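Dear U.,

For the methods section draft, I wanted the exact inputs and outputs in one place so we can describe them consistently. I've listed the two proteins in the order they'll appear in the manuscript figures. Please don't edit the C-alpha cell lines directly; just add comments below if something needs changing.

First protein:
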Amino acid sequence: MATELDVPTGRPAAIPTPAPGDPRLAQLSLNQATTKNWTLAEAADGCARAGIPAIGLWREHVAEVGVPRAAKLVADAGLRVSSLCRGGFLTAADHAGQRAALDDNRRALDDAAALGTDTLVMVVGGLPEGSRDLAGARRRVADRIADLAPHAGAAGVRLALEPLHPMYCADRAVLSTLDQALELAAPFPAAAVGVVVDAFHVWWDPRLLPSIAAASDRIASFQVCDWVLPLPSDALLARGMMGDGFIDFRVLREAVEAAGYRGDTEVEIFNADIWAAPGAEVIATVARRYVTEVLPQPS
C-alpha cells in the first residue's frame, strides 16, 4: 500500500486513515468550507465513503439544489447535519438593511429546521461602510438578536453566536470574545441563543477556559482548524490543518466536554492550498489529524 501523505504539507501521515465505522470518528463533522469546491452531493458522498458521520452545511451550497433536495442528499448518505452556516450580518444602521437582515435570518432558521439541524451559526457582521461606531454596531447586534430569538425558539434552532478573531472586527464580526458572545446570549433561553467555540478564533484569549466553563449548555458548536504562520495576504484564508500550527486542541476539547458539550467537532478550514487539493485526500487528512490532534491519546 502506498504511503499516505497529509494535505497540504505532503508529509507522510502519522497514522493510517481510519476506516469507515471506526468509533474514533463518531463525533467528527466535515464543514463544507473545508472542501469548498465540492458540491453538496460530492461532499455528502465523500463523507459517507470516508466514514465521517456528520456534515456542516453552507447556505450557498444548499441554495444550489434547494432545501428539500439538500435534506434528501444528506439523509440518503446517512449523515446528520451538525450546523448550518451562516446567519448574521446584523449591524446595518438603516431600517431597510435591518429589515432585510431579519428576513434573511428568519429564512435561515426555517431552512436549518428543514435540514434537520438545531444550530444556525451566526457571524454577526462588521462595521457598516464608512462607520467607525463600534459600540453602536454592537448595540444593533444585541437588538437584532432580541428580534430573532422568538423565531429561533419557535423553530427549534439556536442562534449560535460565533466570536471571530479581532482581526475580522471591522468587516465580519464586531463580536470578538466568548465572553462577549455569552453576554449577548444571557437574556435568552439557551435553547434559542447559544455560542460557537471555534478554536481558530478564540485560542489566544487568556480568559478562554473560564469562559468555556461558564458557557455550559450554551455551547452549540465546537469547530477546529489551526493557526498557521505566516498569515496570507487574504486573512480569510489563514486557517490550517490541525497539527500544522500552534493550537492545543486537546485542551479545548477537554474544556468544552467538561462544560457539558456532547455534540460534533466540525473541521472548518479556509485555505487556498487545501481547496486546491483533491477532496478525498483532504478528508482523509482531516480524519487522521482529528484522531492524532483532537482526540485523547493512549497513555
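Second protein (the one for the lower panel):
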Amino acid sequence: MVDIIDLLKKLSETHGPPGREDEIRKIVIDYVKNIVDNVTIDPLGNVIALKQGGNLKVMIAAHMDEVALITSFIEDNGFIRFSPMGGIDPRILLSRRVIIHTKNRKINGVIGVKPKHLLTEEDLKKIPQINQMYIDVGASSKSEVEELGVKIGDPITFNEMFTQLTQFRVMGKALDDRAGIAVIIKVLELLKNVELPYTLYAVFTTQEEVGLRGATSVTYTVNPDIAFVIETTTAADTPENIPSEYITELGKGPAIRVMDATMITQQKILEFMVNIANNIKIPYQLQVALRGGTDAGAIHISRGGIPTGVISIPARYLHTPSLILDLNDFENTVKLINAILINIKNKETFYF
C-alpha cells in the first residue's frame, strides 16, 4: 500500500496548470496502471482508469489541474506580466516564488510589485491588483527573457514544497485537488481484489479550475449512471470568521455537499451518502456553499442527467500555494468513498 504522506507529497509538488497536466498525468497513470484493468487518455487529456464489472456504470472523479498563472506580456526591461488561470486572490501573490514552464525548461522567478518605499500612505491601504504585478526572472531585457525560452502563453505555477506540520496536519500547493486524486488512488488499492457488481470508471480530469472543461467532455464519453466527485473544500475555521461562516472545519470529517453555486445534490444520492457515513460511524459535515463549485456542476447535467454526489476534504487557504489539511479527514474520506462504492448494488437506488 502506498504511504499517504509520500503520495500527497509527490502529487502536491508535481506541477499541472490547466491544460498542461502532462506531469501529473504521468504520475497518476504510474500509480493506477497496476490496480485497474485498463487506463486510457481522452483527447482533452483526461485519464480514465477502468475496473471492469457489470453493466451499471459508476464514475468517481478528481481533477488534476491546479490554479496557476499564464505569461501574457514581456516588457522591454525583462519583467514578465501575467494573468490568472483559475480563481486567484491577488493578496496571496506578492513575493511568491514561481516557475515558468517553457517548452524545454523551467525558469525560476519571483512576483514583484512597486516597492513600499515609493508608495503614499493612501496607496498602502489599497490591495495591489494582478495588472500591477510582474515576474522577475533576473533578466535585464526582453531579448534575454526570450533567450531563456519564455514565450507568451507559457504557464506559471507556484514553487512551494510539501510540509508535514504536525502528526495530522500537512501543507502544500495544489492539494486542490491532488488530495482528491490521492483518495481515489487509495480507494482503488482497497478495491483491487474486490469484485464489484458494476463497472467502475476512476476519472482524473483536466481544466477544472477554468470551467469544468475536462469533466464536461469525459462525462459525455463515459455516460455513467451514477457519479461521485472527490474534492477539497473551504475550511474557514480561522480567527477572522465566526462559526456560521466556517463552511467546514479541519478535523471534523469529510464534507458531504448539499448545495453549491453549480449544483443542488439530488435527494436520493444525498441520503445514500449520509446513511453510509452514519453506518460506518465516521464524523462528517453537511456542506452548503453559496459560492464555488466542482466538476459535479458539469457532470450532473450531462446527457439526460446523472445523480452526482460530492465528498470533499476540508482545506484551509484554498486556491493559494499553501493549503492545510488534516490527515484524519483524508483517512475518513477514503473510508467513506470505499464504503459507498462497496454498497452500490443497483441503479434504482438513485433514480426517482
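Candidate sentences for the figure legend, describing the second protein: The first strand starts at residue 38 and ends at 41. The chain has nine helices and 17 strands.

Thanks,
Y.
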